[in-house]
């Protein structure tokens, strides 16, 4: 992933539809919004998509099909506790996405690679910050405060 694409991921907004209506926005490097923190509790969570693998535009029909496949795969995860619809928004782009509570990075890494994603957003429980997990550098942490 080049620096331009990394900057785009870091600057994007990741919105989740709330059960009671409305949306909450996740931003990399920030704590989960209160409404999402209440849904996540102490569990790991992730925000992932199957749209536009390798950050290359694909037809809407194809993207919708692979997103349904991702949803089915998330539902099969034994640790999955909650899945909510969402969307990632950047400079001129929008991708349907899914917020999942209970899945760890091992499971999400597998799905990100399966669906050709460069990265996804995740965190450990309600108190942590939203982090960007790159598939080309999974041990690097993007979004964590230094120190």
Give the SSE order as H and E letters: HEEHEHEEHEE
- Annotation, overall tally of beta strands: 7
Shape designation: globular
Oligomeric state of the chains?
single chain
In which range does the helix fraction lie? 25-40%
Total helix count? 4
Provide the domain count. Answer: 1
Task: List the defining traits of the structure above.
about 150 residues; alpha+beta; seven-stranded antiparallel β-sheet; 4 helices; 7 strands; about 25% strand; globular
Task: Describe this structure in a few short sentences.
Helices cover 29% and strands 27% of the residues. It is of the alpha+beta class and 147 residues long.
3D architecture notes:
The protein is of the alpha+beta class and 147 residues long. The chain has one domain (3-134). Helix content is 29%, strand content 27%. It is built from 4 helices and 7 strands, in the order H-E-E-H-E-H-E-E-H-E-E. It is globular. It starts with a helix and ends in a 13-residue tail after the last strand.
Write the layout of secondary structure elements.
Layout (H helix, E strand, L loop, with lengths): L2 H9 L1 E5 L5 E4 L7 H7 L3 E5 L11 H17 L5 E8 L4 E8 L3 H10 L4 E6 L6 E4 L13
Antiparallel strand pairs: 1-2, 1-4, 3-5, 3-6, 4-5, 6-7
């Amino acid at each position: 992933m080049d620096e331009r694409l990394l900057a785009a991921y870091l600057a994007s907004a990741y919105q989740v539809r709330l059960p009671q209506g409305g949306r909450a926005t996740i931003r990399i490097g920030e704590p989960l919004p209160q409404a999402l923190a209440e849904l996540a509790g102490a569990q790991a969570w992730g925000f992932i998509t199957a749209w536009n693998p390798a950050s290359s535009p694909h037809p809407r029909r194809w993207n919708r099909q692979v997103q349904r496949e991702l949803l089915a795969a998330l539902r099969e995860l034994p640790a999955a506790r909650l899945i909510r619809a969402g969307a990632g928004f950047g400079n001129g782009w929008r991708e349907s996405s899914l917020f999942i509570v209970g899945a760890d990075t091992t499971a999400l890494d597998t799905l990100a690679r399966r669906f050709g994603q460069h990265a996804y957003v995740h965190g450990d429980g309600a108190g942590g910050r939203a982090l960007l997990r790159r598939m080309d550098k999974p041990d690097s942490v993007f979004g964590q405060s230094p120190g």
